[in-house]
Amino acid sequence: MAEAAALHVLLICYPSQGHINPMLRLAKRIAAKGLLVTCSSSSVVRDKLAAASGVSAGGAGVPVGRGRIRFDFLDDPLDRTELDLDDFLRHLETAGRLALAGLLRRQAEEGRPVACVVGNPFLPWVTDVAADAGIPSAVLWVQSCAVFSIYYHFAHGLAELPCEDDLDARFALPGLPALSVADVPSFLLASHPYKVLGDTIQDQFRNMAKTSWVFVNSFAELERDVVVALPSVTPRPPHLIPVGPLVELEGQDEDEVAVRGDLIKAADDCVAWLDAQAPRSVVYASVGSIVTLPAEVVAEMAHGLASTGRPFLWVVRPDTRPLLPEGFLDDAVAGHGMVVPWSPQDRVLAHSSVACFLTHCGWNSTLETVAAGVPVVAFPQWGDQCTDAKFLVDELRMGVHLRAAPLRREGVREAVDAVTTGAEADAMLANAKSWSAAARDAVAPCGSSDRHVQAFVDEVSRRACGGQAEAS
Predict the structure, then answer these.
(1) Which of 19, 153, 360, 401 does the annotation list as catalytic?
(2) Cβ neighbours of residue 114 under 8 Å, at least 6 residues apart?
(3) Do 82 and 133 sit in the same domain of this protein?
(4) Less Cβ crowding at N or C end of the chain, within 10 Å?
(5) pLDDT confidence of residue 470
């Protein structure tokens, strides 16, 4: 019988922060069970990811739990700045198919054949390459089960959207609350400028039949209704396997947390600054690694945060920093604010001084705030953020919406007041803490998500043993 430690799983993802984080965190969960896990992506992130993780590309990797994690990248050299999104996705597929096939061959030649390939929705061709190589595959869905259901229904013509200008219209899908056009992933809307992303995601659904597992970065208790309802849909969608929340949690083994995937270097002094603030006093604000705000919105956000009268920690990426109002940085420091290019968000949200999170509601950030038990001011911009905001505020009841069209500084202040000292603030905090406990239970030993990861490891082991028996 094959030893579990000899099993090798390869995880490959789209080269952006929002995809790398859940990939790496799932890799750590699988490796901890005793497997060798290789993390891969385009070569455009090779140097940054190797530096952030402290793991050399192509090497033996580092111990994590009872297994190991290593990195190996696709040979698809490219200057990302030369291509727009459409061309970049086409390049990834054209060069990536050959590069992934070569990577899989190289693993076998070096004595570590891959037993399973785990891809993600922005790389739908990964399942084709794995199938051609005779290797079982899985998909890591990096958004919610609810968003999966919405995309599935529209990819298969099972639902129709209301007119975009009819914001009062509602439609229903199994296991989901009544939704408006403002609540669906904006990639489905005809007016959205990045239609290619919606098309790419829907392409993945046409490849789902080739996969053996569909993991989702969520947990059963968080989205029970939609997980239960999906099997009744015709044509029947793949079985979703919640393995999340794929976030860093306090109390994890130090070697697991040390393997990080931050493509932007986090400010070193964030946590020390938070240590000096009063409990539940700080407004933390971030719109993630991709969202770009126009100058007028940045200005209103700046003045709004300053007007709360609370200390604030605001992530303003280097590309956005020139849009800050003149003199704002000096005034922020004088007024007990801090502006950083990037933060160790998991550590920030877990800090006792943080009162609320003004967030764009990307799914990684959503799960991090759920796991930390921090109430939110929801400020979605596009994509699945619109759906995530709906659930955070209306279903989980742990925050408020911030009106974005147009954003006004008074609105920022009023939203922060509502979620920290308003009539419903205590209830929001209690709900947030309750969901935090459920999230931690899910990933704890024998929790729902931990059991799903173990079941996957056991199944890969059985398949590998069966293949070896046939070969002999």
Answers:
(1) 19
(2) 8, 9, 10, 38, 104, 107, 108, 135
(3) yes
(4) C
(5) 56
